[in-house]
Amino acid sequence: MEQKILKKEDIGKLYNEFSSEYKFYAPIKQKGNIVFERIENPDDIVLDYLNSRIPPKSILFPQMEVLFEYKLDDKDVEITDRQDLDEKFMIFGIRPCDAYSYELFANFFSFHGNWKDEIYLKKKENTTLIGIGCNTPRSTCFCTSVGGHPFNKENMDVFLTDLGETYLVEAISDKGKEIVKKLSWLSDAADKDVKKSEELAKKAEESFVTQIDVDTIVKNLEKSFDHPVWDEISEVCIGCGSCSYLCPTCTCFDVIDETDQYNNKGRRVRIWDTCQSCLYTLETSGHNPRDTKIQRCRNRIMHKFSYYPANYDLLGCVGCGRCIMVCPANNDLRDHLAKIEKIGKEEKEEKAVV
Amino acid sequence: MTIEAENKEIEASIRDVAKKMLSEKQVDVIIGYSQGTLPLSSTPIVIRNEEQVDNLIWDNLCYINLARYLAPLMPQLCDSEGNALKIGIVSKGCVGRAVNLLAAEKQIDLDKVKMIGFNCNGNVNRSKIAMEIGEKEILDVSITGNEIIVKGKDWEQNFPYSEYINELCKVCQVKIPSATEATCLGECQQLESINDEFADIDEFEAKSTEEKWDYIKKELEVCTLCYSCRQACPACYCNLCFVDQNKPIWFNKTTEYTDIFTFHLIRSMHLAGRCVACGACSSVCPVGIDLNFITRKLEKIVKTRFNYTSGLNAKTLPPMMNFKMEDAEEFMLEED
Amino acid sequence: MTETVLEKKVEEKWEPKIIAFLCNWCSYAGADLAGVSRIQYPPNIRIVRVPCSGRVNPYFIIKSLTDGWDGVVVSGCHPGDCHYISGNLVARRRFAILKELLEFFGIEPGRVNFMWASAAEGERFAVLIRKATKMVKELGPNTKFQKEW
User: Which CATH class name applies to C3-139?
Assistant: First the structure.
């Protein structure tokens, strides 16, 4: 891969190159938060950010999405599927943890190839990811503990590194190589630029404050379904679901039908749902297998760190730390994982004493 | 006395009362606030014996309304047969109001709940500070003298305390819980009513209808309908929230503006006369919507119409559970 | 609704659609009396009969607005005359809060109206409906609150 240099003031030029062909999304400031929005004016783009409040999953898997529309007339029902799935997306300035989350999405939306969600998969196929490395990860980030890296380029098409005045541009995938070819006006990178990017990567990797022993946790969770640790973990949770709404790997959704009875038409919509809602597992019979907060809190952590590895051989957490930051009760995931890690040790100590 | 000194005093008095309550077996558990793992946060904690009393803190970042844990009651606060334990609850003024409200609505038994009252000196406005700091990581927040000191890796910024507390805290009239000595240890008072002119929302109310609609649209547009505000509210304890009903579906949960607006409008209506103005809804909102001005309007409506303020005692029913022949009807349509 | 649709409606001499919740014992009978006595009043209202004004859940009013109705009228017995003793008194407090909140949130006052009209007051019923229809007509179509897709 031949590296190129993109000057910071040329981001507008890059935007102009692609904005007509792609739906261009990048981070902007909105009401004091960083969010990924469709860009109208390239001056709004903010790349010097820690991470967005709402993860970029909201671009391909929005909070509310119409699945299809229908019209009724006397006897017939006319269904109109989504017409806009051929449109191309370009997501500019995405972090490696969020880019990796799309890999986990692919698992969910095609479940071992058995059930394919056409809408999401088609959109993902038409998406180009231009990512940027994290020079200064937050103290709440822990991607290195879950198999990630602040400069992980694997899931990107094009990767940028912030060198200060310029960005180092690397094409990773074939799609990415096409993109960089189109940007023929980029200057070539010098060896010192590449060396600087490697130094930045190493510095970022060493700056992580949070280290978690994930293997022990996955192992401990296999036998801890009824352990009293869940009582402690869920004690102060208020059951709001913010953690799952802002989690880049959470994919659960509810499907609702809306009817406009005065005009004989309707549509089927999917909206984000959360396993922390007390109604999530409510069955038509009235029985609710997870009707206490303890069970719901347990479910979330086990889904990410136990069921996901069992089903897909992958960890269901990308280490972005959003759940830690947004929790209103400051119910810190790191504390929970530390408690789970200790489970085996207590028993070992007891055995040693005996 | 500086805020810092006040905090130390309050913390010491909470711990003293808590120790006394636990040692005399007046309560089985105490719900309070403990040190958070993030700056600008605190974590609620449930302690069960005297050794844990030093975990209780008070530091102007205690924005969760602890009465929220009382209804519905979770298994951790019940004994093995499912009966409620005796619970002590660290009560700033608004938490006390919420406890009174829940008692008046027969959701809790005041024989089993004791408040640890103190004179609250306000909570820091987290979203205002986060917005001013911008995209830099905050590593430490502390109160020194009368200033809030915010530190990052290699920067520091000071904020004057009195300007950067929650809007509701600025106009709060019930800083000490209003309760009898039987239900509240520590500091308490017995208020019949409060004086409030609501000058802060008069300016908003003087605007034209279009301006009001536009202002509210701008605030609420970013709502992701996560329902954190509803979950953090002590008065929202319904088993099935109106927005979750599906036989029939009354109001949809999409993020189109009509649905967002309807959710907040109807939730406000359900809270009229019951809202205790604790500001937890605003503090927990993940996108930083300021729901406090709606809270103030609700208080104004019931104060001016029914001369009522929620949570001042555990007996008076909220105005929506009552009616009088002489109620004002100036808003009705009449012949010219 | 887009601007052009709004203009079109005004052009076509748009008439408001108003939904009226009338209590069975007083207001509905009052409306009936107005009809039998051939008292003329605007045909814009569509009547929904409810047993008592206290039955009217504020959800009805808000759902009507989101469904696209331009105005809402709720009418019941005079205080003290309720067939169920105190239904209208309960309703009165509800309506007071709802009206203040709707105004605070930016819905035009004048779209949602509450009134008392007894079974003998056919003329009064017509007068008040005329007044309400005039107010809603001046406000124009309910475009901002309606859920449209």
Answer: alpha beta
